[in-house]
Amino acid sequence: MEKKRSSFSGKLGFVLAAAGSAVGLGNLWRFPYLAAKYGGGIFLLVYLILAVTFGFTLMIGEVALGRKTGLSAIGAFKKLNSKYTFVGYFAALVPIIIMPYYCVIGGWVFKYFTAFLTGHSQSAAQDGYFEGFISQTGQPILWQSVFILGTAIVVFLGVEKGVEKVSKVLMPLLVILTVGIAIYSVTLPGASAGIIYYLKPDFTHFSITTVVGAMGQLFYSMSLAMGIMITYGSYMKKDVNLEKSVSQIEIFDTGIAFFAGMMIVPAVFVFSGGDASAINAGPGLMFVTLPKVFMSMPFGTIIGILFFILVLFAALTSSISLMETIVSITCDRLHWNRRLATIIVSLFALAVALPSSLGFGAWSGIQPMGMSFLDFFDFISNSVLMPIVAFFTCIFIGYVIKPKTISDEIKLNSPFKREKLFVVMIKYIAPVCLIIILVSSILNALGIFVI
Ligand code: PFF
Q1: How far is the CA of 318 from the centre of ligand 1 (A)?
Q2: Residues near 180 by beta carbon (within 8 Å), at least 6 away in sequence
Q3: Is 246 helix (H, G, I), strand (E, B) or coil?
Q4: 143 CB under 6 A from ligand 1?
Q5: Spatial CA neighbour of 422 closest among 136, 61, 66
Q6: How many C-beta neighbours within 10 Å does residue 284 have?
Q7: What is the tens place of the pLDDT at every residue in 290-321?
Q8: How remote is the CA of residue 114 from the centroid of ligand 1, in Å?
C-alpha cells in the first residue's frame, strides 16, 4: 500500500494524475454540447463562477480529506467519523455508474480515430454517418469493448508511472491542438455569430436549469463528488502546496473545456449556415461537426487523426482513473486480488455498457424516465448522486469535522489564501444550493416542475 501511495507523491505526479483524470470526454465532448444547449455565453459565465467557488471548495476539501487520512473515500469518512461512512459508499457508486457509459463514448472516439486513419475521413464527415453508426448493434459494441480492453490492460498492469510519463508528453500536445483548432474555427468565415453566442451572456437564456446543468458538468469535469480526488489526495506528500496544486488542476481543466467550446460552437454555426437548431445536436455534436471542420481544413485528415488520438488518450486516462477507483474499492472491501478484480470489473462494464449503446438503436424504444439509457445513467450520476455526495461532504466538513481540520491540513506548509471563501462556501452557500439543485433537477426530470 505504501509503495503504491508513493507513486503519486511528487508534485508534478499528483497534478498530472489528477489532471489526467479530470481532463477527458467531459471537457472535449460534454462541455461544448452542454454550453450549446444551455444558451452559450450564459452557461459559460455560470460555469466559470461555479468553478472558482464550488469547484475550488469541493476539490480542495476532498484532496485535503484524502491527504489527512491517507485513505480513499470510504476509509477516509470512516476514519474521521464512522457515522458518515455511507457518504463514502455513495461516492464509490458514482464511478460504477459512469464507467460503463463512458466506455460507450470512448468506443465512438476509437471508431472515428480509425475511420480517419484508414482513409474514411470523407465519409465520417457526411451527414447521417454518426447516427448510422451509433444505431447499429455490433459495431458500437465492438469499439466499446476495445476501449474497455485498453483501459483494463493498463489497470491490470497497475502502471500509474507509465500513465504519468505518457501524460507529460500528450497533455501539452492536447493543449496545443485544442487551442490551434479553436483558432482555426474562429477564423472561419461566418464564425462570428457562433463566437458571440458562445462568449456573450444572454440573460434571457438564464434559468435554474442552466445552473443545474453547469453544476453537474462541473462535478463531472473535475472528477468531484465521487471519491477520486480523496484517493488522489491520499497519494500526496505532506510538503506539497495543496492550494496551488488544486488551482493548477482547475485552470487546466477549465481551460481545456473553454477551448473545446471555442473549437466546436463557432464551427457549428458555420456548417449549419447559421441554423441555430443545429447547436442542439446533443451528444453527437463533437462527432457530427468536427469531422466537417477537419475536412474543410488543409491537411484535415492528418489533423483529424491527431485530434481523435488525443481525445482517445484523454478519455483513456479518465477511464483508467474510473476503473482504478472501482478496482481498488473491490480489492479493499472484498479482498480480491487486483487482477481478478480488474477482470470482473471489466466484464461488469461490458455488460452494463450494452443498454447505453443499444439505447440508440435496437433498444431505442425503451426509455427510462423518457431518456435514452446513456442519458439516464448520466442523469442518475451527475444530477442525483453527485449533488447528494457533495451535500454530505459539505455537511461533514462544515459541521462534523469542522473546516479548521481541513484548513490545518492545507496550512501544514503554506498559507491558505482562499480560506474565508472556503469556510463560507462549505458551511452555508454550497449546502443550500446543492439541495435546491438536487430537488429541482429531479422535479425537472420527472416533468413536474419545469422552470
Ligand atoms: N473528469 C472526466 C472528464 O471530464 O471526462 C470524467 C471522469 C473521470 C469522471 C473520472 C469521473 C471519473 F472518476
Answers
A1: 5
A2: none
A3: helix
A4: no
A5: 61
A6: 15
A7: 898 888 878 889 889 988 988 998 999 899 88
A8: 23
